[in-house]
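agent> fetching stored inputs for the flavin-adenine dinucleotide docking request
agent> found them:
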Amino acid sequence: MLDVEPACSARHRVTGRPDDDGGRARCADVIPSPTTGPGPSGLDAVGTVDAVVVGAGQAGLSAAWHLRRRGFVAPWEPATAGRRTFVVLDGEDGPGGAWRHRWKSLRMATVNKVHDLPGMALPTVDPAEPSRDAVPRYYAAYEREAGLPVVRPARVTRVTRVEPVDPDDGAAPLRVTLTDGRTLLARTVVNATGTWTKPFWPYYPGQETFRGRQLHTADYVRAEDFAGQHVVVVGGGISAVQLLAEISEVASTTWVTRREPVWRDDEFTQQAGHDAVALVDERVRAGLPPGSVVSVTGLILTPALRDAAARGVLVRRPMFERITPDGVAWADGTEQHADAILWATGFRAALDHLAPLHLRGPGGGIMMDGTRVVAEPRVQLVGYGPSASTIGANRAGRDAAREVARYLDALPIPAT
Ligand SMILES: Cc1cc2nc3c(=O)[nH]c(=O)nc-3n(C[C@H](O)[C@H](O)[C@H](O)COP(=O)(O)OP(=O)(O)OC[C@H]3O[C@@H](n4cnc5c(N)ncnc54)[C@H](O)[C@@H]3O)c2cc1C
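agent> prediction call returned; pasting tokens
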């Protein structure tokens, strides 16, 4: 059952607008409500929604929970008059966000750490269980217990501004369009679309001539698929070294990175995490792209990686210059045969659907103030930049709900 925080143990609803209390929202309705919803086909009937959350991973669920806690209700719940409404649109076929797609060998014992969502702890799980089973199961229970109005599959293709009838009308909503062409109007959008759907593939000359298999981390299933082969693993991030270590148990490998990897042998303390987040936060406040996680954390030597190092697997070569039909070739003339090239080259924020809003500035990134997009206060980005971790996503969800409420509070009250 959902654990309602002590201050909210009494079952009561907020009748006014929750105060801005620095994140400690007053008790709203955290009592689960029916979330059967209208089904995707009924979305057309919901009218203008106060907040549309796009994405139901850790960030979207946290934002949704905090909206609910502030008294937001699903548009299809009975007696919504005078209450703020919200809906969560998720592109997946079921709960779990990107965790649905993690490779099977990424077990609960080998993930960095999946933090509890607000109000309901991750149950004790078998450390050997694949994270792609355990985390979606947790999210499914969470959606159900918290009564979150998640509609799926509902993939957003476009968010656009609606031309206001009165040009001074700052309250005009945004139009949210789904893959199948259906639209709904949103006073605010909390974007929580993660990165998994936007794998980054760099281009190297000759790439199209390669006769072996090329895949991205997002396509990786299991090391056994490469048994007896030679695999070139590209990338200097955490996923790259984890996959390199496990593939090297069944195949021969070559590891290439653009930059010399930065290993850290010390403990990754809370302070180190805090400092890493602060660096990314600084970048997005300045309107720069957030950059990779590893660029601020460094690579932590886990026992599995120490073992790989002892086997001589973590010997890094610089990037090759080109790809040949049979492998890869460096500028000095050396070549390496390869049966497969694994591009563990990371992901980018999945924000293509926000392109019509032209949020990117001259720095190439989106200038942020906390979770709020500076150029478009109707849009919050959660799970983006400094909040791209399960713990960061939790906090960002809370902050975004507060910003949404603040924005709605400031809207002119329509004349009756
Ligand atoms: C391999 C790997 C391992 C990781 N391990 C950890 C870890 O151990 N601990 C940790 O804290 N972090 C980890 N992370 C980072 C992790 O991804 C985040 O912490 C967190 O789970 C991401 O949550 P999210 O809600 O931002 O995104 P996601 O979980 O990706 O959820 C986004 C949701 O939005 C949906 N979506 C995307 N686009 C649209 C659209 N246009 N319309 C509608 N829906 C859309 C997606 O389908 C998905 O359901 C890892 C990342 C990777 C790549």
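agent> quick read of the result: The longest helix spans residues 390-409.
agent> awaiting further instructions
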